[in-house]
Amino acid sequence: MTDLALPALADAPAKPAAAGLTARTRRARALAYLQAAPMALVFLVFFVVPLALTLMVSFWEYNEYEIIPAFTLQNYADIFEGCLSGSDLCTTARTYLSTLKFCFLTWAFTLLIGFTVAYFLTFHVRSPTTQMVLFLVCTIPFWTSNVIRMISWIPLLGRNGLINDTLRGIGLIDKPIDGLLYSDFAVVLAFVHLNTVFMIVPIFNSMARIDRSLIEAAYDAGATGWQTLWNVIVPLAKPGIAIGSIFVITLVMGDFVTVGVMGGQQIASVGKIIQVQMSVLQFPAAAANAVVLLCAVMVMILTMSRLIDLRKEL
Amino acid sequence: MSDTIRFTRRTLLQGAGATGLAAGSGAITGFPAVISAEPVTLRYLGTAVNQSSDIARKVKEDLGITIEYVPVVTDEVTKRVVTQPNSFDIVDSEYFSLRKLIPTGNLMGMDARRIKNADKITPVFTRGEVAGKKIGDQGTAPKKVFYLEGQTSTKFAGEPTQWITLIPTTYNADTLGIRPDLIKRPITSWKELLNPEFKGRASILNIPSIGIMDAAMVIEATGDYTYPDKGNMTKAEIDRTIKVLIEAKRAGQFRAFWQDFNESVNLMASGETVIQSMWSPAVTKVRSQGVACTYQPLKEGYRAWASGFGLPKTLSGRKLDAAYDFINWFLSGWAGAYLNRQGYYSAVLETAKGQMEPYEWAFWMEGKPAERDIKGPDGSVLEKAGAVRDGGSFESRMGGVACWNAVMDENTYMIRKWNEFIAA
Question: Which keywords appear in this protein's UniProt record, sorted alphabetically (chain B) (predicted)?
Fold first, then answer.
């Protein structure tokens, strides 16, 4: 405020000082709003409006060929049908549990791999040029589409695929391992392959900002390598870890292509349910599912932001 | 047969010329109106399987009409017709979708008087008969949805009228595909799909409305239950069917489910599955990779499907004329022969016959051993001389239809239960 007030005083000596100050402040505020407007507009048009429409449609009725503006809770009732009976898990609970399982496994593996790679890049590679080159190497898989990257696993993992053939060839197994493809294993493998880079980038970014003298200080104070890692590097890399985790978890929660292809369409995912409903014109049911999914993801993100105050850390 | 060709072409051109005259373009040269005027482009919405560039090229040559393909998947065709009826000029849709499409009023009835070969369309569609014999009509059989009460009516007519919903393009009888080299014994019944012998090596398609019909064929084959109408189950029947599927899934019967053509080809060709629901051209594709694959006829019969041309209500003027010209051309033989050579069936068999060699007709339609190598439309050899088509003749294949792809009254409930099956 003082920065703004000073030139105001100089510019408008004729006017009473107080009035000039408010006019200036008001103008500066308007300018700030104007500067934020494009982003706000984009958000409004491409995020708020569609979301509001989705929410609205999720309460509508529908039949085979039209959606009917009305108010019904039936779409939500359908989603949670049988969830309160207790004897057997309902479809929705099962689906979310399976999706959460993939979330957790993918998160754990991508974190482990992403952290290790970022650590290596930051602290073991000395020259900034090599660092950048190696960092770009990490992004090479992204030169092809993620569907291709996913499908390329199939000839490798199949019943008569490369791995099974090799293992049989060297006599380790006599019957092919079926669980390699179209299984939870295959899904997690593909998820980790596809999403690790989203962990590497933010963690690398956070680590690159760590002041080297802190690490030297830790050594000087007699900390072991592990102690330095746990007490100095991990806390300072937290924002990167949090951002990476948010990326990975939201990507896995909303995915249906990877689960479909690698799971042989046999594994349920929330995205798949929504896709099936959309393709048979049950838009309100799909909208209700989307709203539930959105809530679930928001709860997860809120929990994470409780653990780490991102704004403060950045 | 060459007489028939010339005759057909001539009448077609004359007909088109007459249309031009009627439209007031003044073309009396005998050329179709569309050539004499500005070239017309028709946006053709349909699935990629039916959209061949050869057909588009030939239409351009014969009629001067440019066909602009809009290839999407089956469900998307329906969605487009319902939500964006102005985004196409002609649609190639499955008959079972009509129960969703017609009530929206987005399609118009086609005037049978403007379709030259309308009365020659095979009775499979008009009366549900093959060679005078009634065929299975469970599900959305085309004869139930073939006629409208009026041009803009949203109700299906019980008896033949002047207004046709869809003019058939292709249809076929679907069954299970098997790998005879890996199964090594005859397969004669749908119940083998859930036979524990093929545990972890079976597959079913993950398109709910079709998948559940295949499951119903299996359940009927085991003798557990006989459906009054497999294509229109009650809630209790849906529960029962899904329960059987869930039990099989939990027991590890299925290797994977497939959703598109190529997935089904890959599953079969790689040996991941040895028995699965399949589509005819997919079997051909597996075979063309040198892998033994049979489109196995089964004693309980086939699940049939059919698709056809529909016109959006908003189509008018020259585009409408061009659409009728195109449809008349489509039924006049060349396209029919082209489709028959891919293993589909065409709407007007006699005109297609005129465009096929006698040995081709004998192989594809009469179920006789091939006199010579059978080639596909692209010239690649599909079958060696001596081979017999799986399932035999048109009469025995289409005559053996048990049910048709369908949209059920309880579709919403069925989709929910199907999702439960996938999640189980």
Answer: Periplasm, Signal
| pLDDT for the residue numbered A314 | 62
> Dihedral, CA atoms, B95, B97, B98, B99, nearest 10 degrees?
130
- pTM, 2 dp: 0.79
Checking if the pLDDT of B323 tops 50, the result is yes
Closest CA to A273 of B417, B97, B403: B417
State the total domains in chain A: 1
B198 and B101 share one domain: no
State how many domains chain B has.
Answer: 2
Q: Which of A78, A264, A280 sits opposite B75 (nearest CB)?
A: A280
B423, A264: Cβ pair inside 8 Å?
Answer: no
pLDDT single digits (tens) A245-298: 999 999 999 898 899 889 988 888 898 889 888 888 889 999 999 999 999 999
Type of residue numbered A209: R
Query: In this model, does residue A57 exceed pLDDT 50?
Result: yes
pLDDT-derived band at B149, boundaries 50, 70, 90 = very high
**Are residues B424 and A94, on separate chains, in Cβ contact within 8 Å?**
yes
Instruction: For residue B128, give its domain range.
Output: 2-173+304-358
Cβ-defined contact of B272 to A78 (cutoff 8 Å): no
- Whether B363 is covered by a domain: the verdict is no
Closest CB from B79, B99, B208 relative to A64 = B99
Interface residues of A toward B, Cβ cutoff 8 Å, are 62, 64-66, 78, 81, 91, 94-95, 98, 154-155, 158-161, 178, 181-182, 260, 264-268, 272-273, 276-282, 285
For B77, the closest chain A residue by CA position comes to A279
Residue B248 contacts residue B254 (beta carbons within 8 Å): yes
* Closest-CA distance of chain B to residue A78, Å: 8
A175: left (phi > 0), else alpha (psi -120 to 50), else beta? beta
User: Could A279 and B412 be called an inter-chain contact, meaning their C-beta atoms sit closer than 8 Å?
Assistant: no
Q: Does B410 lie in the same domain as B327?
A: no
Residue A76 falls inside a structural domain: no
Contact between chains at B254 and A282 (C-beta distance less than 8 A):
no
| Chain B residues with a Cβ under 8 Å from any Cβ in chain A | 73, 75-76, 78-79, 82, 99-101, 103-104, 200, 206, 208-209, 249, 254-259, 266, 270-272, 407, 411-412, 415-416, 418-420, 422-424
Q: How far is A68 from chain B (nearest CA, A)?
A: 13
